[in-house]
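User: Continuing from earlier, I have the next pair ready.

Assistant: Great, send them over.

User: Here they are, in order.

Assistant: Folding the first of the pair now:
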Amino acid sequence: MACILITGGTGFIGSAVSKELISKGHKVKLLDLVIGKKNENDSNFYSGSILDPYLVSTVIRGCDYVVHLAAALGVRRTEYRRLECLYINIQGTVNILEACVKENIKKIVFASSSEIYGNQNKVPIREDSPVNPISNYAITKLVGEEYLRAYYDNYQLSYSIVRFFNVYGVEQRDAFVLPKFVRSVCENKPPVIYGDGKQVRSFCYVSDAAKGIVAALFNKNSNGEIYNIGNDSEPISMRELAEKTINLAGKKSISPQFIPLEDSDRSKEREVYNRIPSIEKAKKSLQYNPEVNLDEGLCKVIDKVLQEP
Protein backbone atom coordinates (compact mmCIF):
# COMPACT_ATOMS: atom_id res chain seq x y z
CA MET A 1 0.00 0.00 0.00
CA ALA A 2 1.33 3.43 -0.97
CA CYS A 3 0.50 6.86 0.44
CA ILE A 4 -0.42 9.42 -2.21
CA LEU A 5 -1.00 13.16 -1.82
CA ILE A 6 -3.60 14.60 -4.21
CA THR A 7 -3.47 18.38 -4.54
CA GLY A 8 -6.89 19.70 -5.46
CA GLY A 9 -8.03 16.49 -3.82
CA THR A 10 -11.62 17.48 -3.06
CA GLY A 11 -12.21 18.87 -6.53
CA PHE A 12 -14.02 17.32 -9.45
CA ILE A 13 -11.16 15.18 -10.80
CA GLY A 14 -9.36 14.90 -7.46
CA SER A 15 -12.34 13.22 -5.81
CA ALA A 16 -12.50 10.63 -8.58
CA VAL A 17 -8.75 9.94 -8.33
CA SER A 18 -9.05 9.57 -4.56
CA LYS A 19 -11.89 7.07 -4.98
CA GLU A 20 -9.89 5.08 -7.55
CA LEU A 21 -6.77 4.92 -5.35
CA ILE A 22 -8.70 3.93 -2.22
CA SER A 23 -10.44 1.17 -4.19
CA LYS A 24 -7.00 -0.25 -4.90
CA GLY A 25 -6.03 -0.26 -1.22
CA HIS A 26 -3.90 2.88 -1.11
CA LYS A 27 -3.87 5.63 1.49
CA VAL A 28 -4.57 9.15 0.26
CA LYS A 29 -3.98 12.62 1.65
CA LEU A 30 -6.01 15.48 0.21
CA LEU A 31 -4.81 19.09 0.01
CA ASP A 32 -7.35 21.66 -1.16
CA LEU A 33 -8.70 25.12 -0.46
CA VAL A 34 -12.25 23.78 -0.39
CA ILE A 35 -13.55 21.35 2.20
CA GLY A 36 -16.02 18.95 0.61
CA LYS A 37 -18.93 17.77 2.77
CA LYS A 38 -17.56 14.23 2.85
CA ASN A 39 -14.14 15.54 3.96
CA GLU A 40 -15.28 17.60 6.95
CA ASN A 41 -14.20 14.97 9.49
CA ASP A 42 -11.47 13.37 7.39
CA SER A 43 -8.12 13.30 9.22
CA ASN A 44 -6.38 12.90 5.85
CA PHE A 45 -7.77 16.20 4.52
CA TYR A 46 -5.64 19.33 4.79
CA SER A 47 -7.10 22.76 4.09
CA GLY A 48 -4.78 25.25 2.48
CA SER A 49 -3.05 26.59 -0.59
CA ILE A 50 -0.24 25.21 -2.74
CA LEU A 51 1.17 28.76 -2.47
CA ASP A 52 2.08 28.01 1.17
CA PRO A 53 5.43 26.16 0.91
CA TYR A 54 5.55 25.27 4.61
CA LEU A 55 2.09 23.68 4.50
CA VAL A 56 2.93 21.84 1.28
CA SER A 57 6.10 20.34 2.80
CA THR A 58 4.25 19.36 5.95
CA VAL A 59 1.46 17.60 4.10
CA ILE A 60 3.78 15.80 1.65
CA ARG A 61 5.91 14.41 4.48
CA GLY A 62 5.40 10.67 4.75
CA CYS A 63 3.91 10.29 1.27
CA ASP A 64 5.32 8.08 -1.47
CA TYR A 65 3.71 9.74 -4.49
CA VAL A 66 2.00 12.99 -5.50
CA VAL A 67 -0.81 13.65 -7.98
CA HIS A 68 -0.78 17.39 -8.68
CA LEU A 69 -4.20 18.59 -9.81
CA ALA A 70 -4.58 21.92 -7.97
CA ALA A 71 -4.74 24.88 -10.34
CA ALA A 72 -6.59 28.03 -11.30
CA LEU A 73 -9.17 26.82 -13.84
CA GLY A 74 -11.46 28.13 -16.53
CA VAL A 75 -10.58 30.10 -19.65
CA ARG A 76 -12.64 33.18 -18.71
CA ARG A 77 -11.39 33.30 -15.12
CA THR A 78 -7.74 32.79 -16.04
CA GLU A 79 -7.86 35.39 -18.83
CA TYR A 80 -9.41 38.08 -16.61
CA ARG A 81 -7.26 37.17 -13.60
CA ARG A 82 -4.02 36.60 -15.44
CA LEU A 83 -1.59 37.30 -12.62
CA GLU A 84 -3.46 35.02 -10.22
CA CYS A 85 -3.43 32.22 -12.79
CA LEU A 86 0.30 32.63 -13.44
CA TYR A 87 1.12 32.71 -9.75
CA ILE A 88 -1.03 29.74 -8.67
CA ASN A 89 -0.26 27.48 -11.60
CA ILE A 90 3.46 28.22 -11.84
CA GLN A 91 4.66 29.14 -8.35
CA GLY A 92 2.27 26.64 -6.80
CA THR A 93 3.73 23.88 -8.97
CA VAL A 94 7.27 24.93 -8.03
CA ASN A 95 6.32 24.70 -4.34
CA ILE A 96 5.01 21.17 -4.91
CA LEU A 97 8.16 20.12 -6.77
CA GLU A 98 10.46 21.60 -4.11
CA ALA A 99 8.62 19.68 -1.41
CA CYS A 100 8.75 16.48 -3.49
CA VAL A 101 12.53 16.74 -3.67
CA LYS A 102 12.93 17.53 0.05
CA GLU A 103 10.64 14.69 1.11
CA ASN A 104 12.09 12.11 -1.33
CA ILE A 105 8.88 11.53 -3.25
CA LYS A 106 9.18 8.56 -5.61
CA LYS A 107 7.14 10.12 -8.41
CA ILE A 108 4.73 12.93 -9.29
CA VAL A 109 1.95 12.93 -11.89
CA PHE A 110 1.20 16.41 -13.23
CA ALA A 111 -2.21 17.32 -14.63
CA SER A 112 -1.69 19.30 -17.81
CA SER A 113 -4.30 20.12 -20.44
CA SER A 114 -5.20 19.68 -24.08
CA GLU A 115 -5.38 23.49 -24.12
CA ILE A 116 -1.63 23.52 -24.75
CA TYR A 117 -2.20 22.17 -28.27
CA GLY A 118 -4.38 25.09 -29.34
CA ASN A 119 -5.57 24.70 -32.92
CA GLN A 120 -3.97 21.89 -34.86
CA ASN A 121 -3.85 21.24 -38.58
CA LYS A 122 -4.01 17.48 -38.04
CA VAL A 123 -6.36 15.48 -35.85
CA PRO A 124 -6.47 13.32 -33.86
CA ILE A 125 -3.90 15.15 -31.73
CA ARG A 126 -0.90 13.09 -30.64
CA GLU A 127 1.44 13.75 -27.74
CA ASP A 128 4.16 14.78 -30.19
CA SER A 129 1.91 17.27 -32.01
CA PRO A 130 3.34 20.81 -31.90
CA VAL A 131 2.23 22.85 -28.90
CA ASN A 132 0.35 26.05 -29.69
CA PRO A 133 -1.00 27.59 -26.47
CA ILE A 134 -3.46 30.41 -27.14
CA SER A 135 -4.64 31.14 -23.58
CA ASN A 136 -3.01 32.24 -20.37
CA TYR A 137 -4.08 28.98 -18.72
CA ALA A 138 -2.48 26.89 -21.48
CA ILE A 139 0.80 28.76 -21.10
CA THR A 140 0.92 28.05 -17.36
CA LYS A 141 0.36 24.34 -17.99
CA LEU A 142 3.17 24.27 -20.54
CA VAL A 143 5.47 26.03 -18.08
CA GLY A 144 4.53 23.43 -15.46
CA GLU A 145 5.54 20.64 -17.84
CA GLU A 146 8.92 22.30 -18.39
CA TYR A 147 9.46 22.57 -14.65
CA LEU A 148 8.87 18.84 -14.27
CA ARG A 149 11.52 18.11 -16.89
CA ALA A 150 13.94 20.50 -15.19
CA TYR A 151 13.40 18.94 -11.76
CA TYR A 152 14.04 15.53 -13.23
CA ASP A 153 17.25 16.77 -14.86
CA ASN A 154 18.47 18.44 -11.66
CA TYR A 155 17.11 16.17 -8.94
CA GLN A 156 16.03 12.95 -10.70
CA LEU A 157 12.44 13.47 -9.56
CA SER A 158 10.44 10.94 -11.56
CA TYR A 159 7.30 12.22 -13.24
CA SER A 160 4.55 11.58 -15.76
CA ILE A 161 2.39 14.21 -17.45
CA VAL A 162 -1.26 13.68 -18.37
CA ARG A 163 -2.99 16.05 -20.77
CA PHE A 164 -6.75 15.98 -20.21
CA PHE A 165 -9.28 16.28 -23.03
CA ASN A 166 -12.70 17.57 -21.94
CA VAL A 167 -13.31 15.60 -18.76
CA TYR A 168 -16.89 15.71 -17.48
CA GLY A 169 -19.09 14.09 -14.82
CA VAL A 170 -21.84 14.59 -12.28
CA GLU A 171 -19.84 16.77 -9.88
CA GLN A 172 -18.48 19.18 -12.49
CA ARG A 173 -19.32 22.85 -12.07
CA ASP A 174 -21.82 24.42 -14.46
CA ALA A 175 -19.12 26.74 -15.81
CA PHE A 176 -18.10 24.02 -18.28
CA VAL A 177 -19.96 23.38 -21.51
CA LEU A 178 -21.51 19.95 -20.96
CA PRO A 179 -22.95 20.55 -17.46
CA LYS A 180 -23.99 24.02 -18.61
CA PHE A 181 -26.00 22.48 -21.45
CA VAL A 182 -27.53 19.93 -19.08
CA ARG A 183 -28.49 22.55 -16.50
CA SER A 184 -30.18 24.75 -19.08
CA VAL A 185 -32.12 21.90 -20.70
CA CYS A 186 -33.26 20.44 -17.36
CA GLU A 187 -34.52 23.90 -16.40
CA ASN A 188 -36.45 24.10 -19.70
CA LYS A 189 -34.10 26.74 -21.07
CA PRO A 190 -32.32 26.62 -24.44
CA PRO A 191 -28.68 25.48 -24.32
CA VAL A 192 -26.54 28.42 -25.45
CA ILE A 193 -24.07 27.74 -28.26
CA TYR A 194 -21.37 30.29 -29.05
CA GLY A 195 -20.57 30.63 -32.73
CA ASP A 196 -21.97 28.22 -35.31
CA GLY A 197 -21.72 25.13 -33.09
CA LYS A 198 -19.30 23.35 -35.40
CA GLN A 199 -16.54 23.24 -32.78
CA VAL A 200 -15.70 19.58 -32.14
CA ARG A 201 -14.75 18.00 -28.82
CA SER A 202 -14.27 14.48 -27.44
CA PHE A 203 -15.65 14.07 -23.93
CA CYS A 204 -14.19 11.75 -21.30
CA TYR A 205 -16.09 10.65 -18.19
CA VAL A 206 -14.24 11.50 -14.98
CA SER A 207 -13.97 7.93 -13.69
CA ASP A 208 -12.12 6.98 -16.88
CA ALA A 209 -9.79 9.97 -16.53
CA ALA A 210 -9.05 8.94 -12.93
CA LYS A 211 -8.08 5.45 -14.08
CA GLY A 212 -5.70 7.01 -16.58
CA ILE A 213 -3.99 9.04 -13.88
CA VAL A 214 -3.56 6.04 -11.59
CA ALA A 215 -2.22 3.94 -14.47
CA ALA A 216 0.35 6.65 -15.28
CA LEU A 217 1.33 6.90 -11.60
CA PHE A 218 2.23 3.25 -11.11
CA ASN A 219 3.31 2.08 -14.56
CA LYS A 220 7.06 1.41 -14.50
CA ASN A 221 7.51 2.49 -18.11
CA SER A 222 5.67 5.80 -17.76
CA ASN A 223 8.45 7.82 -16.13
CA GLY A 224 9.24 10.94 -18.14
CA GLU A 225 6.33 10.30 -20.49
CA ILE A 226 3.36 12.42 -21.60
CA TYR A 227 -0.07 10.88 -22.13
CA ASN A 228 -3.25 12.20 -23.66
CA ILE A 229 -6.08 11.16 -21.37
CA GLY A 230 -9.51 11.37 -22.94
CA ASN A 231 -12.00 9.38 -24.96
CA ASP A 232 -11.43 9.34 -28.71
CA SER A 233 -14.42 7.19 -29.66
CA GLU A 234 -17.18 9.81 -30.03
CA PRO A 235 -16.09 13.23 -31.32
CA ILE A 236 -19.09 15.53 -31.36
CA SER A 237 -19.85 19.10 -32.42
CA MET A 238 -21.34 21.56 -29.94
CA ARG A 239 -24.54 21.68 -32.00
CA GLU A 240 -24.80 17.87 -31.89
CA LEU A 241 -24.05 17.83 -28.16
CA ALA A 242 -26.83 20.32 -27.47
CA GLU A 243 -29.28 18.27 -29.54
CA LYS A 244 -28.22 15.03 -27.83
CA THR A 245 -28.71 16.62 -24.41
CA ILE A 246 -32.20 17.79 -25.39
CA ASN A 247 -33.16 14.33 -26.66
CA LEU A 248 -31.77 12.37 -23.70
CA ALA A 249 -33.48 14.71 -21.25
CA GLY A 250 -36.78 14.28 -23.09
CA LYS A 251 -37.13 18.03 -23.68
CA LYS A 252 -37.72 17.98 -27.41
CA SER A 253 -39.65 21.24 -27.45
CA ILE A 254 -36.40 23.10 -26.68
CA SER A 255 -34.03 24.33 -29.41
CA PRO A 256 -30.44 25.55 -29.01
CA GLN A 257 -29.77 29.29 -28.89
CA PHE A 258 -26.87 30.62 -30.96
CA ILE A 259 -24.84 33.60 -29.75
CA PRO A 260 -21.91 35.28 -31.53
CA LEU A 261 -18.50 33.92 -30.54
CA GLU A 262 -17.30 37.36 -29.47
CA ASP A 263 -19.84 37.25 -26.63
CA SER A 264 -18.33 34.02 -25.25
CA ASP A 265 -15.36 33.46 -22.95
CA ARG A 266 -13.12 33.15 -26.03
CA SER A 267 -12.45 35.50 -28.91
CA LYS A 268 -12.33 34.03 -32.41
CA GLU A 269 -8.54 34.10 -32.17
CA ARG A 270 -8.60 32.04 -28.98
CA GLU A 271 -11.27 29.53 -29.91
CA VAL A 272 -10.18 25.92 -30.46
CA TYR A 273 -12.22 24.48 -33.32
CA ASN A 274 -11.23 20.82 -33.44
CA ARG A 275 -9.98 19.02 -30.34
CA ILE A 276 -9.87 15.25 -30.78
CA PRO A 277 -7.20 13.22 -28.96
CA SER A 278 -5.19 10.28 -30.04
CA ILE A 279 -5.00 8.01 -26.98
CA GLU A 280 -3.12 5.22 -28.71
CA LYS A 281 -0.01 5.81 -26.60
CA ALA A 282 -1.97 5.49 -23.34
CA LYS A 283 -3.82 2.44 -24.64
CA LYS A 284 -0.58 0.71 -25.56
CA SER A 285 1.61 1.76 -22.61
CA LEU A 286 -0.92 2.04 -19.78
CA GLN A 287 -3.64 -0.33 -20.98
CA TYR A 288 -5.92 2.69 -20.70
CA ASN A 289 -9.34 2.07 -22.22
CA PRO A 290 -12.19 4.45 -21.42
CA GLU A 291 -15.36 2.56 -20.60
CA VAL A 292 -18.17 5.14 -20.25
CA ASN A 293 -19.72 6.16 -23.56
CA LEU A 294 -21.14 9.63 -24.09
CA ASP A 295 -24.83 8.67 -23.85
CA GLU A 296 -24.22 6.83 -20.58
CA GLY A 297 -22.20 9.64 -19.05
CA LEU A 298 -24.56 12.34 -20.23
CA CYS A 299 -27.51 10.46 -18.73
CA LYS A 300 -25.67 10.32 -15.38
CA VAL A 301 -25.27 14.10 -15.42
CA ILE A 302 -28.89 14.66 -16.49
CA ASP A 303 -30.21 12.32 -13.76
CA LYS A 304 -28.14 14.12 -11.14
CA VAL A 305 -29.56 17.52 -12.10
CA LEU A 306 -33.15 16.25 -12.35
CA GLN A 307 -32.90 14.70 -8.86
CA GLU A 308 -31.87 17.97 -7.24
CA PRO A 309 -34.48 19.48 -4.91
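And the other member of the pair:
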Amino acid sequence: MSKYRSKYHLSEYHYRPQASLRKKEIKAYRKTFLIILLTFGFLSIIYLWGIPFISNLYNFWGAWQANPNSAETNNLDLVNPPQINPLPKLTNQSQLTISGQAQANDRIRLLLSGNEVDTAMADQDGNFIFENVTLHEGENNFSLTAVTDGNESQPVNLSVVSDKTPPTLTLEKPADGQKQEGVNSTVTIEGITEPDAFLVVNEHQVIVENTGKFSYRLNLAPGENKIKIIAKDEAGNETTAEKTVFYTPSAKDPSETNILE
Protein backbone atom coordinates (compact mmCIF):
# COMPACT_ATOMS: atom_id res chain seq x y z
CA MET A 1 0.00 0.00 0.00
CA SER A 2 2.81 2.36 0.82
CA LYS A 3 4.46 1.54 -2.45
CA TYR A 4 1.29 2.38 -4.34
CA ARG A 5 0.98 5.68 -2.57
CA SER A 6 4.58 6.41 -3.28
CA LYS A 7 4.07 5.81 -6.97
CA TYR A 8 0.89 7.80 -6.95
CA HIS A 9 2.54 10.79 -5.33
CA LEU A 10 5.52 10.53 -7.65
CA SER A 11 3.19 10.55 -10.66
CA GLU A 12 1.34 13.55 -9.31
CA TYR A 13 4.62 15.33 -8.67
CA HIS A 14 5.59 14.98 -12.31
CA TYR A 15 2.16 16.10 -13.64
CA ARG A 16 1.81 19.45 -11.84
CA PRO A 17 4.81 21.13 -13.48
CA GLN A 18 3.40 20.25 -16.90
CA ALA A 19 0.09 21.95 -16.07
CA SER A 20 1.90 25.00 -14.72
CA LEU A 21 3.96 25.29 -17.89
CA ARG A 22 0.82 25.03 -19.97
CA LYS A 23 -0.76 27.96 -18.11
CA LYS A 24 2.37 30.06 -18.59
CA GLU A 25 2.32 29.33 -22.31
CA ILE A 26 -1.31 30.42 -22.56
CA LYS A 27 -0.52 33.67 -20.71
CA ALA A 28 2.44 34.31 -23.01
CA TYR A 29 0.26 33.72 -26.08
CA ARG A 30 -2.38 36.12 -24.77
CA LYS A 31 0.21 38.76 -23.99
CA THR A 32 1.74 38.44 -27.47
CA PHE A 33 -1.68 38.65 -29.10
CA LEU A 34 -2.54 41.75 -27.06
CA ILE A 35 0.72 43.46 -28.06
CA ILE A 36 0.09 42.66 -31.72
CA LEU A 37 -3.49 43.95 -31.45
CA LEU A 38 -2.41 47.22 -29.79
CA THR A 39 0.37 47.73 -32.34
CA PHE A 40 -2.08 47.18 -35.21
CA GLY A 41 -4.56 49.62 -33.65
CA PHE A 42 -1.85 52.27 -33.14
CA LEU A 43 -0.68 51.95 -36.74
CA SER A 44 -4.28 52.14 -37.94
CA ILE A 45 -4.80 55.42 -36.04
CA ILE A 46 -1.65 56.90 -37.59
CA TYR A 47 -2.77 55.78 -41.04
CA LEU A 48 -6.30 57.19 -40.70
CA TRP A 49 -5.69 60.42 -38.77
CA GLY A 50 -1.98 61.04 -39.16
CA ILE A 51 0.77 62.22 -36.85
CA PRO A 52 -0.94 65.57 -35.90
CA PHE A 53 -3.77 63.64 -34.24
CA ILE A 54 -1.29 61.71 -32.09
CA SER A 55 0.54 64.94 -31.22
CA ASN A 56 -2.71 66.69 -30.21
CA LEU A 57 -3.76 63.67 -28.17
CA TYR A 58 -0.41 63.66 -26.38
CA ASN A 59 -0.62 67.41 -25.68
CA PHE A 60 -4.17 67.04 -24.38
CA TRP A 61 -3.13 64.21 -22.08
CA GLY A 62 -0.16 66.23 -20.82
CA ALA A 63 -2.38 69.24 -20.12
CA TRP A 64 -4.92 67.09 -18.32
CA GLN A 65 -2.20 65.49 -16.21
CA ALA A 66 -0.89 68.95 -15.28
CA ASN A 67 -4.35 70.20 -14.26
CA PRO A 68 -7.04 67.49 -14.51
CA ASN A 69 -9.63 69.57 -12.62
CA SER A 70 -9.45 72.62 -14.91
CA ALA A 71 -12.69 72.68 -16.90
CA GLU A 72 -11.89 76.14 -18.20
CA THR A 73 -8.73 74.92 -19.99
CA ASN A 74 -10.60 72.05 -21.62
CA ASN A 75 -13.43 74.33 -22.74
CA LEU A 76 -10.99 76.52 -24.68
CA ASP A 77 -10.46 73.62 -27.09
CA LEU A 78 -14.18 73.11 -27.69
CA VAL A 79 -14.60 76.28 -29.80
CA ASN A 80 -12.53 77.13 -32.87
CA PRO A 81 -10.92 80.59 -32.66
CA PRO A 82 -12.04 83.16 -35.25
CA GLN A 83 -10.04 83.78 -38.41
CA ILE A 84 -9.20 87.43 -39.09
CA ASN A 85 -8.95 88.98 -42.54
CA PRO A 86 -5.59 90.67 -43.26
CA LEU A 87 -5.05 94.05 -41.60
CA PRO A 88 -2.35 96.70 -42.09
CA LYS A 89 0.39 96.76 -39.48
CA LEU A 90 0.68 100.52 -39.91
CA THR A 91 -2.01 103.06 -40.76
CA ASN A 92 -2.58 106.80 -40.55
CA GLN A 93 -6.32 106.35 -39.99
CA SER A 94 -8.21 106.95 -36.73
CA GLN A 95 -10.64 104.07 -37.31
CA LEU A 96 -10.36 100.54 -38.60
CA THR A 97 -12.66 97.78 -39.88
CA ILE A 98 -11.98 94.28 -38.52
CA SER A 99 -13.69 91.32 -40.20
CA GLY A 100 -13.28 87.59 -40.44
CA GLN A 101 -14.88 84.16 -40.25
CA ALA A 102 -15.99 81.89 -37.42
CA GLN A 103 -18.56 79.16 -36.83
CA ALA A 104 -22.11 80.16 -37.71
CA ASN A 105 -23.93 82.07 -34.95
CA ASP A 106 -20.83 82.39 -32.76
CA ARG A 107 -20.59 85.49 -30.61
CA ILE A 108 -17.30 87.28 -31.31
CA ARG A 109 -15.67 89.36 -28.60
CA LEU A 110 -13.32 92.23 -29.50
CA LEU A 111 -10.90 93.29 -26.78
CA LEU A 112 -8.37 96.14 -26.73
CA SER A 113 -5.54 95.72 -24.22
CA GLY A 114 -7.64 93.11 -22.41
CA ASN A 115 -10.80 95.23 -22.17
CA GLU A 116 -13.92 94.34 -24.19
CA VAL A 117 -14.83 97.13 -26.59
CA ASP A 118 -17.47 95.44 -28.76
CA THR A 119 -19.21 92.17 -29.68
CA ALA A 120 -20.62 90.88 -32.97
CA MET A 121 -22.55 87.82 -34.11
CA ALA A 122 -21.33 85.61 -36.94
CA ASP A 123 -24.01 85.12 -39.59
CA GLN A 124 -25.18 81.84 -41.09
CA ASP A 125 -22.07 81.77 -43.31
CA GLY A 126 -19.79 82.47 -40.36
CA ASN A 127 -18.89 86.03 -41.41
CA PHE A 128 -18.59 88.82 -38.85
CA ILE A 129 -17.47 92.46 -38.98
CA PHE A 130 -16.53 95.28 -36.59
CA GLU A 131 -16.83 98.68 -38.25
CA ASN A 132 -15.38 102.02 -37.16
CA VAL A 133 -13.10 100.54 -34.50
CA THR A 134 -11.33 103.47 -32.82
CA LEU A 135 -7.53 103.48 -32.94
CA HIS A 136 -5.31 105.27 -30.46
CA GLU A 137 -2.09 106.93 -31.53
CA GLY A 138 0.66 104.34 -31.31
CA GLU A 139 0.29 100.56 -30.90
CA ASN A 140 -3.17 99.02 -30.52
CA ASN A 141 -3.21 95.43 -29.22
CA PHE A 142 -6.45 93.61 -30.07
CA SER A 143 -7.70 90.15 -29.11
CA LEU A 144 -10.69 88.31 -30.57
CA THR A 145 -12.43 85.23 -29.21
CA ALA A 146 -15.43 83.15 -30.27
CA VAL A 147 -18.12 82.10 -27.76
CA THR A 148 -20.47 79.13 -28.28
CA ASP A 149 -22.86 77.76 -25.62
CA GLY A 150 -20.90 79.44 -22.86
CA ASN A 151 -17.56 78.06 -24.06
CA GLU A 152 -14.91 80.52 -25.27
CA SER A 153 -12.10 79.88 -27.74
CA GLN A 154 -8.44 80.70 -27.44
CA PRO A 155 -7.79 84.39 -28.28
CA VAL A 156 -6.44 85.55 -31.62
CA ASN A 157 -4.06 88.46 -31.06
CA LEU A 158 -3.19 91.22 -33.53
CA SER A 159 -1.45 94.57 -33.38
CA VAL A 160 -2.08 97.72 -35.44
CA VAL A 161 0.02 100.88 -35.12
CA SER A 162 -1.68 104.21 -35.77
CA ASP A 163 0.88 106.74 -37.00
CA LYS A 164 -0.24 110.19 -38.14
CA THR A 165 3.17 111.85 -38.10
CA PRO A 166 4.46 112.68 -41.61
CA PRO A 167 8.08 111.79 -42.44
CA THR A 168 10.79 114.40 -42.19
CA LEU A 169 12.12 115.84 -45.46
CA THR A 170 15.01 118.29 -45.77
CA LEU A 171 16.30 119.52 -49.16
CA GLU A 172 19.92 120.62 -49.37
CA LYS A 173 20.08 121.15 -53.16
CA PRO A 174 19.00 122.94 -55.29
CA ALA A 175 18.14 126.36 -53.95
CA ASP A 176 14.65 127.59 -54.73
CA GLY A 177 14.74 129.95 -57.72
CA GLN A 178 18.19 128.78 -58.74
CA LYS A 179 19.29 129.90 -62.23
CA GLN A 180 21.42 127.67 -64.36
CA GLU A 181 23.07 128.43 -67.68
CA GLY A 182 25.34 126.59 -70.09
CA VAL A 183 25.54 123.18 -71.62
CA ASN A 184 24.80 121.33 -68.36
CA SER A 185 21.08 120.63 -68.56
CA THR A 186 20.81 118.62 -65.33
CA VAL A 187 20.42 119.60 -61.71
CA THR A 188 21.33 117.55 -58.63
CA ILE A 189 18.65 117.13 -55.97
CA GLU A 190 20.03 116.17 -52.57
CA GLY A 191 18.49 115.90 -49.14
CA ILE A 192 17.61 113.66 -46.24
CA THR A 193 14.42 111.91 -45.10
CA GLU A 194 13.49 108.86 -43.04
CA PRO A 195 15.40 105.69 -44.06
CA ASP A 196 12.24 103.67 -44.74
CA ALA A 197 10.46 106.45 -46.66
CA PHE A 198 9.28 106.05 -50.26
CA LEU A 199 10.69 109.01 -52.18
CA VAL A 200 9.54 110.41 -55.54
CA VAL A 201 11.00 113.34 -57.53
CA ASN A 202 8.70 114.50 -60.32
CA GLU A 203 7.13 110.98 -60.46
CA HIS A 204 10.56 109.29 -60.55
CA GLN A 205 11.29 106.94 -57.64
CA VAL A 206 14.54 107.72 -55.83
CA ILE A 207 16.54 105.29 -53.69
CA VAL A 208 16.97 106.34 -50.06
CA GLU A 209 20.11 105.20 -48.22
CA ASN A 210 20.11 103.59 -44.77
CA THR A 211 21.09 106.96 -43.33
CA GLY A 212 18.10 108.65 -44.99
CA LYS A 213 20.22 110.55 -47.52
CA PHE A 214 19.26 110.67 -51.19
CA SER A 215 20.64 112.15 -54.41
CA TYR A 216 19.09 112.40 -57.87
CA ARG A 217 20.03 114.13 -61.14
CA LEU A 218 17.06 115.63 -62.95
CA ASN A 219 17.04 116.71 -66.58
CA LEU A 220 16.05 120.35 -67.10
CA ALA A 221 14.06 121.89 -69.92
CA PRO A 222 14.79 125.44 -71.10
CA GLY A 223 12.98 127.97 -68.96
CA GLU A 224 11.17 127.37 -65.70
CA ASN A 225 11.37 123.86 -64.12
CA LYS A 226 9.05 122.94 -61.28
CA ILE A 227 10.48 120.22 -59.02
CA LYS A 228 8.18 118.32 -56.65
CA ILE A 229 9.62 115.94 -54.03
CA ILE A 230 7.29 113.63 -52.06
CA ALA A 231 8.34 111.46 -49.11
CA LYS A 232 5.82 108.85 -47.97
CA ASP A 233 6.10 106.53 -44.94
CA GLU A 234 4.68 103.04 -44.44
CA ALA A 235 1.58 104.39 -42.69
CA GLY A 236 0.68 106.53 -45.73
CA ASN A 237 1.71 109.92 -44.33
CA GLU A 238 3.27 112.30 -46.87
CA THR A 239 5.59 115.29 -46.80
CA THR A 240 5.96 117.43 -49.92
CA ALA A 241 8.58 119.97 -50.92
CA GLU A 242 8.72 122.08 -54.10
CA LYS A 243 11.56 123.92 -55.79
CA THR A 244 11.85 125.99 -58.96
CA VAL A 245 14.95 126.03 -61.18
CA PHE A 246 15.43 128.24 -64.27
CA TYR A 247 17.60 126.90 -67.04
CA THR A 248 19.03 128.85 -69.96
CA PRO A 249 20.96 126.77 -72.48
CA SER A 250 24.09 128.28 -74.03
CA ALA A 251 23.86 129.78 -77.53
CA LYS A 252 25.14 127.57 -80.31
CA ASP A 253 28.50 128.37 -81.93
CA PRO A 254 27.82 129.64 -85.52
CA SER A 255 30.83 127.67 -86.78
CA GLU A 256 29.33 124.46 -85.44
CA THR A 257 26.09 125.26 -87.27
CA ASN A 258 27.93 125.75 -90.57
CA ILE A 259 29.77 122.47 -90.16
CA LEU A 260 26.53 120.61 -89.53
CA GLU A 261 24.94 122.22 -92.58
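Worth noting for the second one:
DSSP finds four helices and 17 strands in the chain. The helical segments are 2-49, 51-66, 71-75, 254-260.
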